[in-house]
Design a protein that fits this description.
9-stranded parallel β-sheet, alpha/beta, TIM Barrel, globular, 12 helices, 266 residues
Length: 266
């Protein structure tokens, strides 16, 4: 079993749902990325997505786009991000770590070399946002050879055929986007989301987690009433940026994420 599979199994046994948190590698800098992820683990986050910044982040909203740009301007690279992951892995040996990125940085690095290095540095899974299932054959094979889970995305507009394909290809979990468009904190959760998740769960026993627009304990509690977990990204990235120079940055992160995690137990 992978760390993700172990974590979801443990959550099922406890009657809890998953809280997955997103941060951008290198924003504000590599050292504080490591410190923030440690705080996320201490606050109870069940897995962490670490964004590998890319210069053309098509699926990301303003907050994460800006964080990626800051990270790149600060000198973040694939190699430096993997070094930070290795530090996080040493500090948090049981925490599932998912790298979320686009296909270009992986392809530029070299698929085989990248997968080997990612595994060596402690990565458990990937979400490659712009890699469609139809084009993912080589990456899926190389990931499997290196013991890396592959998480694919579905949306409210996904067809039954696409739901079947993604449900079959995803391991770790299936990422259901709560709405069409880009990431970013929202005030509401679409009413049709319950039906969308139900249609996905009818196709797979793999956990289904929902992201995009989730920012409050109320959002998390609602999502966890019908899905296996919630993903919080833009709101956390904004919090980190707002308090990046504060002495209590990690305390603020810990308090916020603790309130989100409590909502998965309701």
């Amino acid at each position: 079993m992978s760390r993700l599979e172990d974590r979801f199994e443990a959550l099922r046994e406890r009657g809890e749902k998953a809280l997955i948190c997103f941060v951008t590698a290198g924003d504000p800098d590599a050292a504080r990325t490591v410190a923030v992820v440690r705080a996320l683990a201490e606050a109870g986050a069940d897995a962490v997505e670490i964004g590998l910044p890319f210069s053309d982040p098509l699926a990301d909203g303003p907050s994460i786009q800006a964080s990626s740009q800051r990270s790149l301007e600060g000198g973040m690279t694939v190699a430096k991000a993997l070094t930070a992951v290795a530090e996080i892995r040493a500090a948090c040996p049981a925490l599932p770590l998912i790298l979320m990125t686009y296909f270009n940085p992986i392809r530029h690095y070299g698929l085989d070399r990248y997968a080997r290095d990612a595994k060596t540095h402690g990565v458990d899974a990937h979400i490659v946002t712009d890699l469609t299932p139809e084009e993912a054959g080589d990456w899926k094979r190389i990931s499997a050879e290196n013991g890396l889970d592959t998480v694919f995305l579905l949306a409210p507009t996904s067809t039954p055929i696409r739901i079947e394909v993604v449900s079959r290809l995803s391991n770790g979990f299936v990422y259901c986007v709560s709405r069409t468009g880009v990431t970013g904190a929202r005030q509401d959760i679409p009413a049709e989301l319950t039906d969308v998740v139900g249609r996905i769960k009818a196709q797979t026993s793999t956990p289904v987690c929902v992201g995009f627009g989730i920012s409050t304990p109320e959002h998390v509690r609602h999502i966890c009433s019908f899905a296996d977990g919630a993903v919080v990204g833009s709101a956390l990235v904004s919090l980190i940026h707002e308090h990046r120079d504060a002495d209590d940055l990690t305390t603020r992160v810990r308090d916020y994420v603790s309130s989100l995690k409590a909502a998965t137990k309701s």
